Amino acid sequence: MALLLQYTLIYASVLMLVALGGCFSERSGVINLGLEGTMVMGALGGALVMKYMGDLPAALMIAAVILGSVIFGMLYTLLLAVSAINFKADQTLVGTAMNLLGTAAATVIVKAINMAENVNNVSSSIQYIEQRKAFAAFKIGNFEVSWFMILAVLLLIAAHVILYKTRFGLRLRACGEHPQAADSVGINVYKMRYAGVLISGFFGGIGGIVYITAGVSEWKFENGVAGFGFLALAVMIFGQWEPKLIGLAALLFGLFRALSNVYSGFDVLEALQIPSAVYNMLPYIISLVVLALFSRNSRAPKAEGIPYDKGQR
């Protein structure tokens, strides 16, 4: 049970962080389907920090890993910001391209690094066996609390405060609901949408490094992040683009994802003799069911996905 709870919370942390990123972007009016690619690039940034700065003290290394993930994630989402905001490109196509590019670029970069160190090493893997130990905060019995779990809760609270308790959040939401009205009162819609997309890169980058350090000490980047970016979109929609509801939805999806790791430890589930592949598919099946049942009644920002034209009224 402790292992189930641990995996549920760590996967929920990933989904919550990435979904919050999508929430900020869409609240500003830009659909970010490229969360999958953003996660991969954020994971790459953090993994490279662990590879080359693994001798740092634990606290400094955690800060450096988070910073590396954030920088890579935010820089990568600039592709979406420039394409969608400046050039008014189709946001769905740009996001899809970012997902394909993210995994491919990370694979090429890691393989190039490994081959530079050893010409016979053509893998796309980075190891962080010792470095990963620094992310454990403390233990309660068999339950290990990660610093990333604590960070995820703090960022969830911060996201709610920023969106609903600050002038910046009010302006951001206005740009996603009625950008022409926001512009008429002096709000720079382009800047606010840039801010929303970059914040999505911030959250998505952290979500990427949390994902690849959840239970493993080596990551093969050609595998991507197993569709977690799309699961996070389902969490965001199920959570109605509100941080508090996103947190609850992430716990639900995290539970189903965790079952695929620990179902063999439960006699009841083991007795059912359900193939392991079914448990692996479970969170994705749940996401389809959730979207089918709730997407019709979801209240998305009215101007999301619509390029802003300053001359239009």
Describe the overall structure.
The protein is mainly α and 313 residues long. It is built from 12 helices and 4 strands. It has helices at residues 2-28, 35-52, 58-86, 91-117, 147-165, 167-177, 179-184, 189-212, 228-238, 243-262, 267-271, 276-294, and strands at residues 125-127, 136-140, 143-146, 218-220. The strands form 2 sheets. The protein has a two-stranded antiparallel sheet with strand order 1-4. A hairpin with a 2-residue loop joins strand 2 and strand 3. The protein starts with a helix and ends in a 19-residue tail after the last helix. The mean pLDDT is 92.
Name the helicity range: 55-70%
Tally of separate helices: 12
The order of strands across the largest sheet is 1-4
Beta-strand residue fraction: under 5%
Strand element count: 4
The secondary-structure element order is HHHHEEEHHHHEHHHH
Characteristics of this structure?
313 residues; mainly alpha; two-stranded antiparallel sheet; globular
Short overview:
This protein has helices at 2-28, 35-52, 58-86, 91-117, 147-165, 167-177, 179-184, 189-212, 228-238, 243-262, 267-271, 276-294, and strands at 125-127, 136-140, 143-146, 218-220. By secondary structure, it is mainly α.
